[in-house]
Amino acid sequence: KFSCECEHNTCGESCDRCCPGYHQQAWMAGTFHARHICEKCNCHGKAEECHFNQTVADLSLSLDIHGQRRGGGVCVGCRDYTAGINCETCIPGFYRPAGVSADEDNPCIPCSCDLRGSASQSCVPNSNQATSSQPPGSCWCKEGFGGLLCDRCAVGYMGFPFCQPCNCSIDGSTNKDPCVTPCVCKENVEGENCDRCKVGFYNLQRYNQRGCEKCSCMGVSSHCTESSWTY
């Protein structure tokens, strides 16, 4: 019985398949005129196995070893709390800090969300999913809570870890700290807590310097309310 000496990262008695970890491109038999080299998947050193997925290839979701979105290799069994097509992100509850490469050893570290204020134990997993206000490792807070770890009250709330609304409306008052009374209302706002528009005004908004907009009732009425109608 003869056996083939496989080349180009192929395996099997007849060299009829790609070796484990070399499925970035779909299997294709070579010919006398053209060889087909099985390409290694890019798992950032966190997995040895992968498989080819045509949908991943069609959507250009897989990163090859040359840094190009080419091929459909999907890593299997990512280690060190990593996850993703290329083991490039972290499992829920872990994150990769800004400046840490996916190629580094143990790139993912535990999230530190305060569960009293955080909506979950998960946090922003890496720089690709971060924003200017939510860097990697920052948590998603419940209403009334703030801070990168949801470990304090948001503006307009007081009494951590309960974080109840402050007396002064952050929409209608000019108080720098809405938890310090008395409440000072914007020009078109009234009420002890500055939480309602004056007669003849409507649509209380936080970023309106006067608080509310003037009604336009053609002199027929001085009262108006918000409407979803468009003209």
From TrEMBL:
One term under GO cellular component: basement membrane
Molecular functions (GO terms): extracellular matrix structural constituent
Pfam families listed in its UniProt record: EGF_laminin, EGF_LMN_ATRN
Keywords for this protein: Basement membrane, Disulfide bond, Extracellular matrix, Glycoprotein, Laminin EGF-like domain, Repeat, Secreted, Signal
Boundaries of every Laminin EGF-like domain copy: 111-165, 166-214
InterPro entries: EGF, Laminin/Netrin_ECM, LE_dom, LMN_ATRN_NET-like_EGF
Entry's localization field: Secreted, Extracellular space, Extracellular matrix, Basement membrane
Disulphide bridges: 111-123, 141-150, 185-194
GO terms, biological process: animal organ morphogenesis; axon guidance; tissue development
Gene3D superfamilies referenced in this protein's UniProt entry, alphabetically: Laminin (2.10.25.10)
SUPFAM superfamilies for the chain: EGF/Laminin
CDD domains (UniProt xref): EGF_Lam (cd00055)
First-listed, main subcellular location of the protein, grouped into a coarse class: secreted
Protein known as: (spotted green pufferfish) hypothetical protein
